[in-house]
Amino acid sequence: GQRTRFKAFVLVGDKNGHVGLGVKCAKEVATAIRGAITVATLAVVPIRRGYWGNKLGDPHTVPTKVTGKCGSVSVRLVPAPRGTGIVAAAGSKKMIDFAGVHDCFTSSRGHTACLGNFIKATFFALRATYSYLTPDLWRTGTIPRHPFKEHSQFLQDTKSKK
Fold first, then answer.
1. Which of 17, 38, 53, 124 is buried most, with the most CB atoms less than 10 Å from its CB?
2. pTM here?
3. Sign of dihedral through CA atoms 119, 122, 124, 130?
4. DSSP H stretches of helix in 26-114
């Protein structure tokens, strides 16, 4: 016969740049939820936030266009002007809100009726905000001297001793 199993998707976040997603399957609903909470708290990732236009106030949107993919579903997060709100489907809107992003446009492709893949694709897109290096994250440093110029005096001294 059939064995009924329950799958739980749990989202944790502090609305200040951290979000985690947990998925657990179990024979009972309560066990699945408890397991998913544990998995979600262990899977918390930082979310980078940025500005649209000028850099006044706190960061309010995603820094650039980012994409996440799971199964056939791909979700694209696009920066939005301050005051726009989160323009997204209900599931991804909740996740983006938990991440602390206040303004964001979304675009999705694929079979988005599969809630699991849709939520995971949104999570992967949010996780991708820290996967690239922008100029504000560049290290400032001095350019090292070329070895020929650095050791030229030593080479001249050893030549004159011979």
1. 124
2. 0.82
3. negative
4. 29-42, 90-98
